[in-house]
Amino acid sequence: MASPPTGKPDPCLICHNPEGRLCVACHCVAYCSKECQRSDWRSHQKICPQLNTQPERPEDGEFKRAIVFKADEDKPRLVWLEVQRLQDPDSEGKTRTSTARPIADFLACTVDAVTGLGFQRNVRRERDLKHTLVVNFCISDTDKVNYCIREATDLRNFHDFSGAIIVSKFTGFTPQELECADVEAEDYLDITDFLVTFGDPEYRLQSHLLDSTRFESHFDLPDFRTLNLGPDTPDEQDAQVKEDPKEASPPLTPQDDKKMAKCVRIACMGDVLGGSVKFAQAELPLSDLTMYDASNVASSQAYYSSHISQLVGMPICLRRVMREHGEREADFFNPEATLLLTELMNTSSDNWGWPPPHWQAHYSVVGSVVAMREDGKDLTVQQVRNLCEFAQMVARPLTQTALEGEMKIVDCKNLYLTQEKMEDFARMKRLGMRE
């Protein structure tokens, strides 16, 4: 185990209080209080033991520490990345460091198939870095969802990365300054924050590159704001509406100036048989919520709040939309949407545990519906799919148990139909667990 250094205290990794105390296990990061340490522990514990157990730096060459997130592993790994010295074509007699070939070899692909994203600012914590961190991955390795990143970010990552990625560090910000350096324990917080914010509309207008620099390297590193992220789920059958990155904006509440919101259409059986995808991205004006309020239109056309979504912290409402296919009664079936409207708030109601009467005839003869967030924020296909599966696989069996008297209704609502249980369910689902 490394010995604790002596001298001036290190600043706190979380709040930058200058009177930080080093982690007693790795002696690499400092915290000023138990609260700051606890807030970072779920992240730090994934690399803390490795800081003392990583093999010694190889001596047969120049090697720098990097962090690898392999698609099928449950935690990131510290590795030694070989650095090559190349002649600088713009300056005779000078050399520059390159990790292009070692990274391509590690990812088992050609150099041309490797791309990267450089960042010099932590937009989540609104602070500039003192160096450049580079995330490299293989553009052809898209068949494996990266569960390691999901686990490292506690499922907070907006963009679902595919294949392995490797993160390296460079001093400086411009091509003339860049020199490969060791990734340190304190860099891990910035790395996970980047993985969390990457692609999130809330941060898309904020650059991960410093305004005063233009970062270039062997790889094409586009500005974060111009990236075309594609679908928000690895499932290729989901038809997504691709937005122009230049027009992208953070999610706003209805009282702001935002006019449109991303919604999700949940297709009925007839539309699915006719070729529609079950969950598809759509876009509607925010005024749709007031236009189709129950006070303005017939109940069969109005928006209805989803109680299960409110209980798990993602309030949405649904209304019926015109079907595209099918005329038989069975073509109207849409059990996923119907379960989202189950009465769960009023535990003393005779209707608790059941959808509204006009939605439950023949168990979900409702046709296709559209789901919109009540707070005006954008809604993704993956969020709605997770919510529907939670309603079907968790909420429905529990409500039936409560209705049969084997559990108190109030306990069912307050103990099991919660945001925490939803997050646990999403974690198990995304990690591929069955129970």
TrEMBL record:
Native species: Phyllosticta capitalensis
Region (Disordered): 226-256
InterPro entries listed in its UniProt record: Znf_MYND
Keyword annotations of the record: Metal-binding, Zinc, Zinc-finger
Pfam families for the chain: zf-MYND
Domain MYND-type: 12-48
Protein name per Swiss-Prot or TrEMBL: MYND-type domain-containing protein
